[in-house]
Amino acid sequence: MNDNSLRDLRQPSRPASGKPPTITFPCRYSLKVVGDAAEDFAAMVCQVVSRHDPEFDATRLEVVASRNGRFQSVRLTIRATGETQLQALFVELKATGRVHMVV
């Protein structure tokens, strides 16, 4: 990933009003989880996500390596039930010590 890619991931887009978009729950919610490349990184992400969405379908995720192979991004979609669920998921992913970003 180059510096511009990382900057884009850290700054989610906002509407012209400057307010975050309103989400109506429940909904399908796409995530990208970025961490150091490792054989078990996607499996670890799936274990954490499954605790927060028991209906999560791991067969539909996408794993993408960075250009130099140092990082991996795991792209997936969950059934989001509320802000509390999403916050708990983000906290647990970051607490693994292996996740650099969740977008």
Describe the structure.
The protein has 103 residues and is of the alpha+beta class. The chain is 32% helix and 27% strand. It has 3 helices and 4 strands. α2 runs antiparallel to α3. It is globular, with a radius of gyration of 14 Å.
Quick recap:
With 103 residues, the chain is of the alpha+beta class.
Largest sheet: 4 strands, antiparallel
Number of helices: 3
- Percent range for β-strand residues: 25-35%
Span of the ends, CA to CA: 15 Å
What descriptors fit this protein?
single chain, 103 residues, globular, alpha+beta, 4 strands, 4-stranded antiparallel β-sheet
Q: Which SSEs are present, and which pair or pack?
A:
Elements: H1 3-10, E1 27-36, H2 41-52, E2 62-65, E3 71-80, H3 83-95, E4 99-102
